[in-house]
């Protein structure tokens, strides 16, 4: 350690000592060259730190006093930034206080956050330098037994399954609380790369409160010199103090008086129970910096990140209280809730715009009676829906509720029926109802309007369920599976359409609203116009009409889009069942080649298992079968990428599960909204296994039926892409009604009052393919096949010999030309110079051109004519 006379010692960027009173005289030549590294890595001796720390309390008091009369932030700004007026849990009370008169100890106190191995090394030099040292522990186990007995300690708290010791020791609120509790004016960290050493929020808070933070200047110099950590002016990271004759006599460019006006608003994560500066939570996208849990938002916060700035106009802000049971203390409880939360009731409703598109919006408040639904909540939601019908607005509701409000008894239960009636009226008016399930959505809200949306979205990891988990455990006397009643659980079981990241919610809602928005002479709504509005900012012109500035920016954006081949920019935000994530460091070409080899091996195994050897004859039906089954043939997802813009995948049958063999959703073709339903085999072997090799389960057909009905409700054309060996055959499929599901699809498609176009891309096996092919126009790619049964099944049933499959293919005329000549299909689509797997881009382009032309031909038909044409088409057989 440097001598007491030393004011500071310094190290270069390599951690080598470069200056100090006891160091040999250095030549003048390198002094100028090392100036930059010296400026960035100044280290103070402990003696010097203690000497300056004796004057610290007065400095700290001055720092805090300078903010006592600070003017509050502009309330208008607060509404936009959501930074000043919510959940101020604990005020700005971590400032270092001056020692009380007659204090027994005048020594500066230091809180040391160090690992067990470094704790013993700290104590001797620090006490010798005149510091009163307190060591932080977690679970009272951070130090070894000897250290715990010999050293003064402060326990930061107990670790939990969600929060380990390292996370707790790196929590700003916890450390500031500890410093206040043990009256420390200095904080020492045992490494310059410790989490707190690089935490800009921590360094800002420490500086603001007069706490000084030090870390070793370089690895291996623990007892030689300490570097003061300061918040950087550009928030890029910690910044060492510049050299001076005494610590803290520095030229620091941050104006502390303007650094952080007013008290800090601390917010507690409901999952890990740690407190954080609200600014830090906002910077993380309203997610907990420690455990990653999305934080529950108030309506003003939700509006700020979802709707266009200044567009929200509240409806029914206040309503008379309702106490049908004269429940004792209920009015007082409501008053207390209003006073403590600053909220009027458990829901807010009104009109707003997203990317210029108008909507009626409701946001439930989990902070008011846990979002429970009583008379006022039900009435506000029902009146919002009725007013939306009058003004012809789509409705979006963000749900967050613990269920019915018990204090209102059966009147609370009746709200479920009241709002459900309103939702039915909205559906009759042909207006879309979109619900967003946030944490938590349970009880009566789940069992009513939350699950009645035409489209149901959810935030990641949101709690979603009807009965409480404790009730379920007590009833079934079993522990519940991990992830039970989460958004991911609901998606897997087909109960919701999609999980959307909070950062993508505004964009996804804008596209969904646009897909359901009417066009008019003053407003042209397309995929690109909405993307323009999102990029430019709706506040620039307030509507998605093609304003000049939007058109200018839109042209640039579309040029960039075309250059990058970017079409499904929203699809990445919506989970795809069975989708695989490639590692960031993997070579795409190497990954693709490995997947091709894996698919080839699988195809050879299947061929050997079938017992069929030899190459098919050129031009034979069996050759068509083999080409249609080629594992490298483009699957439906490739065609969707090339044909449909802004595709948003929707999941689930709303009853049992989501079937990955059916890929379905909404998007745009030639500027018009469409519903796309496709049988997807999978892009690699693992994906094929997850998607059951494109053989749909009953829930897959029920998902397709649900989206067909939705398309008919909103007048959207339907595109079906067929590619399946057939519907899945298995005991579980029979138990869940495979035949029923296919039958329901056939009768529903026969009466759909919107244009339906089907294209067979590969295999078209039996009723499993026909369930997506009762259409106004049916076409096949030239190397696709369509049959009553697979050739192997045909040979097995008629000849009891599966090896005669090539012969069966000829008998069934399994090639596109024969099917066309038989009048079964309307067209054969060219795949280019070779099969689609050899030139996929040409194949996709040909299908796109056919689909566009087919829709043009059908556009002039009335709903009744569409139904009649479709039924007459199949009546001829």
Structure description:
By secondary structure, the protein is α/β, with parallel strands linked by helices. Strands 20, 21, 22, 23, 24, 25, 26 and 27 form an eight-stranded mixed β-sheet that branches. The chain has a seven-stranded mixed β-sheet with strand order 6-5-4-7-8-9-10. A seven-stranded mixed β-sheet has the order 13-14-15-16-17-18-19, sandwiched between helices. A hairpin with a 6-residue loop joins strand 11 (266-268) and strand 12. The radius of gyration is 34 Å and the shape is globular.
Q: What structural keywords apply?
A:
disordered N terminus; 877 residues; alpha/beta
Please sum up the structure shown.
By secondary structure, the chain is α/β, with parallel strands linked by helices. Helices cover 39% and strands 15% of the residues.
Number of strands: 27
Largest sheet: 8 strands, mixed
Helix content: 25-40%
Please identify the structural class as seen in this structure. alpha/beta
Distance between the termini: 98 Å
């Amino acid at each position: 350690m440097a001598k007491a006379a030393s004011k500071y010692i310094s190290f270069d960027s390599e951690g080598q000592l470069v200056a100090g009173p006891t160091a040999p005289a250095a030549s003048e030549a390198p002094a100028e060259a090392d100036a930059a590294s010296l400026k960035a890595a100044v280290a103070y001796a402990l003696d010097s730190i203690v000497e300056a720390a004796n004057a610290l309390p007065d400095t700290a008091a001055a720092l805090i006093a300078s903010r006592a009369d600070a003017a509050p932030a502009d309330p208008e700004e607060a509404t936009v930034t959501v930074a000043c007026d919510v959940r101020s849990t604990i005020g700005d009370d971590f400032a270092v206080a001056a020692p009380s008169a007659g204090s027994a100890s005048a020594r500066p106190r230091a809180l040391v956050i160090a690992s067990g191995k470094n704790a013993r090394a700290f104590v001797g030099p620090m006490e010798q330098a005149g510091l009163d040292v307190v060591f932080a522990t977690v679970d009272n186990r951070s130090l070894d037994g000897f250290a715990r007995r010999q050293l003064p300690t402060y326990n930061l708290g107990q670790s939990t399954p969600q929060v380990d010791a390292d996370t707790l020791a790196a929590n700003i609120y916890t450390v500031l609380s500890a410093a206040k509790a043990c009256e420390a004016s200095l904080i020492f960290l045992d490494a310059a790369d410790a989490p707190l050493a690089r935490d800009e929020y921590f360094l800002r808070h420490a500086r603001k409160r007069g706490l000084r933070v030090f870390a070793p200047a370089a690895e291996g110099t623990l007892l030689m010199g300490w570097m003061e950590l300061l918040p950087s002016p550009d928030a890029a990271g910690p910044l060492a103090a510049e050299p001076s004759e005494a610590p803290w006599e520095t030229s620091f460019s941050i104006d502390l008086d303007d650094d952080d006006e007013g008290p800090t608003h601390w917010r507690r994560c409901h999952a890990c129970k740690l407190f954080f500066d609200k600014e830090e939570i906002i910077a993380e996208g309203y997610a907990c910096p420690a455990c990653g849990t999305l934080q529950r938002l108030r309506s003003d916060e939700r509006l700020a990140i979802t709707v266009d700035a200044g567009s929200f106009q509240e409806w029914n802000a206040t309503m008379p209280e309702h106490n049908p049971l004269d429940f004792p203390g209920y009015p007082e409880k409501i008053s207390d809730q209003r006073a403590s939360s600053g909220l009027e009731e458990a829901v807010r409703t009104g009109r707003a715009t997203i990317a210029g598109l108008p909507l009626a919006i409701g946001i439930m408040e989990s902070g008011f009676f846990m979002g429970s639904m009583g008379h006022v909540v039900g009435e506000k939601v029902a009146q919002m829906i009725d007013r939306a019908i009058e003004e012809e607005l789509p409705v979006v509701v963000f749900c967050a509720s613990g269920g019915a409000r018990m204090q209102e008894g059966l009147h609370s239960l009746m709200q479920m029926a009241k709002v459900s009636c309103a939702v039915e009226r909205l559906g009759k008016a042909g207006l879309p109802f979109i619900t967003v399930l946030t944490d938590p959505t349970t009880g009566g809200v789940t069992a009513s309007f939350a699950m009645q949306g035409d489209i149901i979205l959810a935030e990641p990891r949101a709690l979603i369920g009807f009965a409480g988990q404790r009730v379920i455990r007590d009833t079934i006397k079993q522990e519940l599976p991990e992830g039970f009643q989460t958004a991911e659980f609901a998606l897997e079981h087909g109960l919701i359409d999609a999980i959307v990241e909070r950062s993508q919610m505004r964009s996804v809602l804008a596209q969904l609203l646009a897909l359901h928005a009417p066009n008019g002479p003053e407003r042209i709504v397309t995929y690109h116009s909405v993307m323009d509005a999102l990029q430019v900012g709706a506040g620039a012109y307030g509507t998605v009409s093609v304003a000049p500035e939007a058109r200018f920016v839109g042209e640039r954006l579309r040029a960039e889009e075309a250059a990058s081949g970017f079409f499904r920019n929203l699809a990445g935000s919506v989970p795809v069942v069975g989708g695989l994530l490639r590692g960031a460091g993997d070579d795409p070409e190497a990954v693709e080649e490995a997947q091709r080899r894996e698919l080839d091996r699988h195809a050879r195994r299947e061929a050997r298992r079938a017992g069929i050897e030899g190459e098919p004859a050129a031009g034979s039906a069996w050759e068509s079968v083999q080409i249609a089954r080629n594992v490298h043939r483009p699957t439906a997802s490739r065609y969707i990428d090339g044909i449909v813009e802004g595709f948003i995948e929707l999941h689930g049958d709303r009853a049992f599960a989501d079937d990955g063999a059916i890929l379905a959703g909404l998007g745009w073709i030639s500027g018009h909204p469409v519903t796309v339903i496709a049988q997807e085999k999978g892009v690699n072997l693992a994906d094929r296994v997850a998607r059951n090799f494109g053989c749909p389960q009953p829930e897959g057909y029920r998902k397709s039926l649900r989206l067909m009905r939705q398309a008919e409700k909103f007048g959207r054309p339907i595109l079906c892409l067929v590619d399946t060996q057939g519907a899945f055959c298995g005991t579980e499929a029979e138990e869940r009604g495979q035949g029923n599901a296919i039958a329901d699809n056939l009768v529903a498609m026969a009466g759909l009052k919107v244009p339906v176009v089907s294209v067979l891309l590969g295999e078209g096996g039996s009723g499993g393919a026909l369930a997506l092919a009762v259409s106004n126009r049916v076409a096949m790619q030239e190397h696709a096949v369509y049959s009553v049964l697979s050739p192997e099944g045909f040979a097995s049933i008629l000849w009891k010999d599966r090896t005669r499959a090539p012969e069966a293919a000829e008998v069934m005329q399994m090639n596109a030309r024969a099917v066309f000549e038989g009048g079964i299909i309307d067209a054969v689509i060219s795949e280019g110079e070779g099969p689609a797997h050899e030139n996929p881009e040409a194949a996709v382009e040909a299908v796109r051109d056919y689909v566009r032309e087919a829709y043009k031909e059908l556009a002039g038909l009335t709903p009744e004519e569409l139904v009649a044409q479709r039924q007459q088409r199949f009546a001829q057989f």
